Amino acid sequence: MSSSTRSTPVWRIVAEREFTTKIRDKTFIGATIFTLLFLVGFFVIGSFVEGRSDDFDVAVVGSADTALVEQAETVLQADSPDGSITVEEVDDADAAEALVRAGDVDAAVVSGEDGYELVGDDDVDTGLRVALTTAVAQDVLEENAAAQDVDLEALNEGTTLAVRLLDENADQSGARGVVAFAFALVFFMTALGFGMSIAQSVTQEKESRVVEILAAAVPIRALLWGKIIGNTLLALGQVVLIVLVGLVGLAVTGRRELLSGITWAALWYVAFFVLGFLALAALWSVAGSLASRQEDLQSTTMPGQLILIIPYFVSVMASDKVQTVVSMLPIVSTMIMPGRMAQGDVPWWQVAVAILATLAAAVVFVRVGSRLYERTLLRTGGRIRYRDAFRLSA
Amino acid sequence: MLSVRDLTRVYDTTTVLDGVSFDVRPGRMTGFVGANGAGKTTTMRIIVGVLAATRGSVTWDGAPIGAEQRRRIGYMPEERGLYPKMKVLDQLVFFGRLHGMDTAAAAARAHDLLDRLGLDERAGDVLETLSLGNQQRVQIAAALVHSPDALVMDEPFSGLDPIAVDSMVSLLRDEVSPQMPVLFSSHQLELVENLCDDLVILSRGRLVASGAVDDLRGRHAVRYRVVLTGGADAGTLRDVPQLSVLDAQGAEALVEIIDGTPEKALEIIQGTAQVAEFARVVRPLAQIYREAVR
């Protein structure tokens, strides 16, 4: 009897097959590309909408008023840091008006006998108007003060209204809410999509009877591990890609403040994702091995679907207090905890509890899962109930 | 040598396999026959380890078979199983690697097998695009890819046309080494007859006969066909005390010799009538089988 030196462990060979089969699958490639395009489109449209309101072109006559508009830009940026005003110098007031009419500039600042005039087409953006008005007022005030020999600083003493926000992230709470929702949605979709495909591939092996050859050749447990690891790596790759495109999108569209606020949450999200996915993968494999035909999957995957759907709705609808509690539960935590971290500070112990709970759940699920999988994989001829599967002997 | 001893399998209350013992000797083809539901598939599944026996053991060279030895068996299940959407070559390489080969060796071996099965140009095709007969050839290749130490094949030739059977048989003859036990079940008794050295017959979960085909034949009295000429009635041979006439029609009779040598019997017959033919009848396997399971 010749004994062979096994260079590659079985689980790796199985994982490789899962990986390469899936990565060549047109549906999978299509879905991934679609998700990424959707994300890119989201940023493109977002920046288009916002870019219109914060970047302005203003025409001025001669170079004298350029400084005025530059001053207005400073005012504008106090409110929206990414805003800008570009100065367009023209020869006379008529040329400035022509530019406004043609839509080449958003407005023109023209000085007349009674002072400055802001010329717009049918409307001038409020932010721009406020910025220019403030700049003009300040400029003229300074001139007048000098003419009257008034100490402007003394006059202005104490007139500034300082702003102090109790929740400094409040202006981004909308955007952060969207990020939190995206975290939950992406996990929900990816875990469900991959989960169903794990279950299907197990059932397909049962249906095509290839499982008989596999089981004769290698330990069933190694098959399960290969499947779990292969699919977890794929899901991880997909989610890392999505998170990267998301972060790059934020950086490119100039939302640096939001970006720095959620980067850590995004990294935690990837960690939570892997653990949550791992815990579920074994359950999905069992769902596949309980079925004898693809049609059986509808009922055998029900527990897996519920474990994802219920937390998803909780994450979308529940009150803050409920979210705080359930965000520490395994699997639910993947959908809620990173979102909470993106929206504000979460005490570290809550993160630790969530991680440990998910780890524990992953260990239990994989253990129970591999036992059920071993017992049911080679049984054909009908759907097996979960209850019966627990009672079966090998 | 691969042996099973007292193999028993009970499902709920039904005993599908009842104390079956036999040997699969190395370097010989052992045919495994029996009616549907006789327990052939159950036996084979227990041998390769995908089913547990309720009682009894499977041994390899006298010791209980282990996982590593089972991995060295080439197995072709009754219900064929391969990945429908995987390419033929990828599939064979995958199975080769599962059996411990490295990728390059598995690929070389797979190409060699496909070549000998006349399928090398389909190596890059997805399995489900092949005809059923060709899929079956790939299935055989999957069982052979790791150059197994033993072969267990459940109905390997069912569904194949005679030419495909021939090419498969010649491939098997090439592959079977003198150290290699081969067990295959089949409904096609003529095929088993041509191919097998040994025979195991199951009936309703019990072993009814096992051993070398020649021995099984010899276990029953040799029969002779006698044809008389000159208008003689073969029925008259019933009057010869040394003969037992099993069947007589016109000038032709099938007889067993109860007493004496064939030469002596011929002499006696020639004393009563003119003999056109006196020939030993090689009993077809089908007959041995029918008698065994009766």
Automatic annotation (TrEMBL), chain A:
Keyword annotations: Membrane, Transmembrane, Transmembrane helix
- Domain ABC-2 type transporter transmembrane per the UniProt entry, residue ranges: 28-366
* Spans through the membrane: 27-49, 178-198, 235-254, 266-287, 299-318, 348-369
What's an example of a GO molecular-function annotation for this chain?
Answer: ABC-type transporter activity
Q: What is its main location?
A: membrane
Places the protein is found: Membrane
- Which superkingdom heads the taxonomic lineage of this protein's source? Bacteria
Coiled coil located at which positions?
A: none
Which InterPro entries does the record match to this protein? ABC2_TM
Q: Name one GO cellular component term.
A: membrane
The way it spans or sits in the membrane comes to:
Multi-pass membrane protein
Report the protein name in the record: ABC transporter permease
Source organism per UniProt: Nocardioides iriomotensis
TrEMBL record, chain B:
Question: What keywords tag this UniProt record?
Answer: ATP-binding, Nucleotide-binding, Transport
- Name under which the protein is recorded: ATP-binding cassette domain-containing protein
Q: State a single Pfam family of this protein.
A: ABC_tran
Enumerate the spans annotated as ABC transporter domain.
Answer: 2-229
The Swiss-Prot or TrEMBL record describes its family as follows: Belongs to the ABC transporter superfamily.
Q: Which GO terms describe its molecular function?
A: ATP binding; ATP hydrolysis activity
Does Transport count among this protein's keywords? yes
Coiled-coil residue spans:
none
Gene3D superfamilies from the xrefs?
A: P-loop containing nucleotide triphosphate hydrolases (3.40.50.300)
The cross-references to PROSITE patterns, in alphabetical order and at most eight, read: ABC_TRANSPORTER_1, ABC_TRANSPORTER_2
